[in-house]
């Protein structure tokens, strides 16, 4: 599952961490544990093989102590392959060979993964490299005072300041018929449509059953034309949090989502669905692009320290009271959340909820000196989940990373961390001539470092060749089921070695299907508008 991030200024892959990466059921124990809503003192340091990284506290209280990243954790049971929930994490995973047409879906680490069979440290010893070990870290102590950040009310909150229009009955009926057609045991169509018609007439909207919500969220992933990792769409775990409609409540559940999705390195695809927009009350909004994102600090000379694509959101967070010295290259941004009747507020993520992988290289011992890292789980949170005419504006979802999202986009793009010149220089490449292909050589080594580091740290990740084969398996399954499988070629083909992958050499159907994930209008000061006109109407 592998694609959703902040867009680079131009290019077909304008969103590096895409719906595939974060490609998005019953809650895990980690997610179910209550989180105190009031500020608390910083959590005592958790024993870790690495030094703790300073974190950012907020109104979200830290959860229980996180076990060692290398500790094995039991995976969910696997229903039959033909069941709607059949493709749950099992043998097929990003670390395993591409699944065949008859093998059940999705991925947690393979039998060769350090997360399943051995601690991450022992995997490095087996690699026989002189480089320092890749590290998966959960920062254990915050350098900031344990307090709530200053809340500030902002004008121009875009759609969060408008009430939804009454639900279109035709859209509701289309979804219900789709659900009953694919899940016949759900019951007859007409009695359910009569209930919905009555609800809409009285309230302007209706409420999905839990089964309808789960089906809609999974099918929205199946319909995501830009996602290469849809083979595992049935494995999506849906956390129903529709009763949560306050900013503080959303922040607490976002932290719980991160803990459950990280799963000690065995990343699980999860979506958390918050209150919808209704004619009577707007649902909450998360204004970050992803739950975990690094800050970008604008410098006097016009450059940006840290993540350039986050510079405007960083300025907004600081304006809302986020206290930071602005010196870090990889400072985790707080969440910016608004809700009906509340102004936009900042909430620091509990440090232990954010796992990061420090990058090393299997051959270049100097690579660790670059000080690069990336977070383990891409959780997209700037898209609306649209099901049967209802918009859920806050519905963060994740899959696992495909290596190129980090190595070929986030750390390599000139408008992002732009690390290719530094890597090429350390490799001794001739950067004075394009014909030396120094960018290409440095790019491959950076991507190799990303895959090696995640695997060594015991964190689920996949490569673009494996995922390309899996996508064609998904395509064949959909065709056998008699369904259209929409795909955007410019997004499905990986950003490196495109012609060396199997998805390059063919065309795909284009269609806009519902349910779907769509980006909202974003009108907070400093927040970019949605690309390509993708909006939740």
Topology as a string of helices (H) and strands (E): HHHEHHHEHEEEEHEEEEEEEEEHHHEHHE
> Helix/strand-derived class?
alpha+beta
Nearest-integer average pLDDT: 78
- Beta-strand residue fraction: 5-15%
Unreliable sequence segments: 1-22, 24-130, 140-161, 525-537
Strand order of the largest sheet: 2-3-14-11
Total number of strands: 17
Provide the helix percentage: 25-40%
The shape, in one word, is globular
Q: What is the count of DSSP helices, taking H or I runs of 4+ residues? A: 13
Distance between the termini: 26 Å
Q: Strand count, sense and closure of the main sheet?
A: 4 strands, mixed
Overall radius of gyration: 22 Å
Short descriptors:
single chain; 537 residues; alpha+beta; 4-stranded mixed sheet; 3-stranded antiparallel sheet; 26% helix; globular; disordered C terminus
Descriptive report:
This protein is an alpha+beta fold and 537 residues long. Helices cover 26% and strands 10% of the residues. The chain has 13 helices and 17 strands. It has helices at 29-32, 114-117, 120-127, 169-182, 189-203, 210-222, 247-262, 311-319, 403-410, 420-427, 438-457, 464-480, 489-492, and strands spanning 135-137, 237-240, 270-273, 285-286, 296-298, 304-306, 335-339, 342-347, 356-358, 373-375, 379-380, 383-387, 390-392, 397-398, 401-402, 461-462, 516-519. The strands form six sheets. A four-stranded mixed sheet has the order 2-3-14-11, sandwiched between helices. Strands 1-9-10 form a three-stranded antiparallel sheet, with helices on one face. A three-stranded antiparallel sheet has the order 4-7-8, covered by helices on one side. A hairpin with a 2-residue loop joins strand 12 (383-387) and strand 13. Helix 4 (169-182) runs antiparallel to helix 5 and helix 10 crosses helix 11. The protein is globular and about 70 Å long. The protein starts with 28 loop residues before the first helix and ends in an 18-residue tail after the last strand. 53% of the residues are buried. Residues 1-22, 24-130, 140-161 and 525-537 have low confidence and may be disordered.
């Amino acid at each position: 599952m592998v694609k959703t991030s902040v867009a680079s200024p131009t290019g077909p892959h304008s969103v590096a961490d895409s719906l595939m990466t974060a490609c998005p059921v019953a809650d895990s124990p980690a997610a179910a544990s209550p989180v105190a809503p009031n500020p608390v003192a910083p959590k005592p340091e958790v024993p870790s093989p690495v030094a703790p990284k300073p974190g950012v506290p907020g109104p979200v209280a830290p959860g229980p102590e996180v076990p060692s990243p290398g500790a094995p954790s039991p995976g969910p049971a696997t229903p039959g392959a033909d069941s709607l929930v059949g493709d749950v994490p099992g043998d097929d995973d990003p670390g395993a060979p591409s699944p065949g047409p008859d093998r059940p879906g999705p991925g947690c680490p393979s039998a060769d993964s350090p997360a399943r069979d051995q601690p991450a440290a022992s995997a490095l010893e087996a690699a026989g490299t002189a480089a320092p070990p890749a590290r998966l870290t959960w920062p254990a102590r915050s350098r900031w005072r344990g307090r709530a950040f200053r809340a500030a009310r902002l004008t121009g909150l875009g759609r969060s300041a408008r009430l939804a229009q009454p639900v279109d009955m035709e859209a509701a009926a289309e979804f219900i018929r789709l659900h009953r057609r694919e899940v016949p045991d759900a019951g007859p169509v007409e009695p359910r449509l009569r209930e919905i018609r009555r609800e809409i007439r009285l309230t302007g909207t209706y409420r999905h059953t839990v089964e309808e919500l789960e089906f809609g969220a999974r099918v929205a992933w199946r319909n995501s034309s830009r996602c290469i990792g849809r083979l595992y769409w049935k494995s999506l775990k849906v956390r129903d949090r529709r009763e949560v409609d306050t900013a503080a409540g959303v922040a607490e559940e976002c932290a719980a989502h991160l803990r459950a999705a990280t799963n000690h390195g065995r990343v699980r695809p999860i979506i958390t669905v918050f209150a919808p927009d209704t004619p009577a009350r707007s649902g909450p909004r998360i204004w970050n692009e992803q739950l975990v994102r690094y800050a970008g600090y604008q410098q006097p000379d016009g450059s940006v320290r840290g993540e350039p694509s986050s510079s405007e959101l960083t300025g907004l967070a600081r304006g809302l009271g986020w206290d930071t010295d602005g010196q870090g290259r990889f400072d985790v941004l707080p969440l910016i959340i608004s809700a009906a009747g509340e102004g936009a507020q900042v909430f620091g993520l509990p440090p232990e909820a954010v796992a990061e992988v420090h990058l090393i290289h299997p051959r270049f011992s100097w690579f660790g000196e670059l000080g690069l890292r990336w977070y383990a789980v891409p959780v997209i949170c700037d898209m609306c989940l649209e099901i049967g005419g209802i918009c859920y504006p806050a519905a963060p979802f994740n899959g696992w990373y495909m290596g190129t999202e980090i190595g070929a986009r986030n750390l390599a793009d000139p408008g992002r961390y732009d690390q290719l010149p530094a890597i090429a220089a350390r490799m001794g490449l001739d950067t004075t001539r394009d014909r030396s292909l120094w960018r290409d050589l440095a790019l491959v080594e950076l991507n190799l470092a990303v895959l090696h580091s995640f695997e060594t740290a015991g964190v689920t990740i996949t490569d673009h060749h494996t995922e390309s084969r899996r996508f064609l398996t998904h395509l064949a399954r959909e065709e056998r089921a008699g369904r259209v499988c929409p795909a955007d070629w410019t997004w499905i083909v990986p950003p490196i070695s495109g012609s060396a992958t199997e998805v390059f050499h063919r065309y795909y159907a284009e269609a806009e299907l519902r349910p779907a994930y769509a980006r909202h209008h974003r009108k907070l000061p400093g927040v970019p508008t949605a690309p390509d006109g993708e909006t939740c109407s």
